[in-house]
Amino acid sequence: MVDNYATNNELVITRVFNAPRELVFKAWTEPERLQQWWGPKGFTLEVYKLDLRPGGIFLGSQRSPEGHVMWGKFVYKEIVAPEKLVFINSFSDEEGNTIRAPFSATWPLEIINHLTLTENDGKTTLTFRGGPINATEEELKTFEGMRPMVQQGFGGTFDQLDEFLAKSQQ
């Protein structure tokens, strides 16, 4: 199958969760669940909009422990419940307009993410693939240079998802 949203600078993370696929998918697609685990450790997420359909958007803000607020959005490209989400992730302003990342003037404006979920014996394998699209050479170099930090960040975010899923099944 040809993937219309492929990128050459992909970051790939695979993680197994002790939870059924339906629950993992809901954790990604229902605002009241997503805001309990998404983002860096110690940050809080407020979901302002989540329109789960191709062309729909998620818009939310993250607040650091020190009170710094960052806005971000997902633009959904493909949704196959409960097995696949494809979305473009960007930093944004409060209205959802794409803006530069607050930490780098050369961070790519758009990151395409592919989330696939497979279930086996009540456990779900999440494969998360993402990378810059429509990026300049300088933006691609910035992404590559920050790859270890991005991997570490997603590791922490997925740890929070793991904790959320464990509590959700009790």
Automatic annotation (TrEMBL):
Pfam families to which the protein is assigned, alphabetical: AHSA1 (PF08327)
InterPro entries: ASHA1/2-like_C, START-like_dom_sf
CDD domains cross-referenced by the UniProt entry: SRPBCC_CalC_Aha1-like
Range of residues in the leader sequence: none
Domain annotation Activator of Hsp90 ATPase homologue 1/2-like C-terminal: ranges: 18-165
Domain of life (superkingdom): Bacteria
Coiled-coil region: none
Family per record: Belongs to the AHA1 family.
Protein name: SRPBCC domain-containing protein
Organism name: Cohnella silvisoli
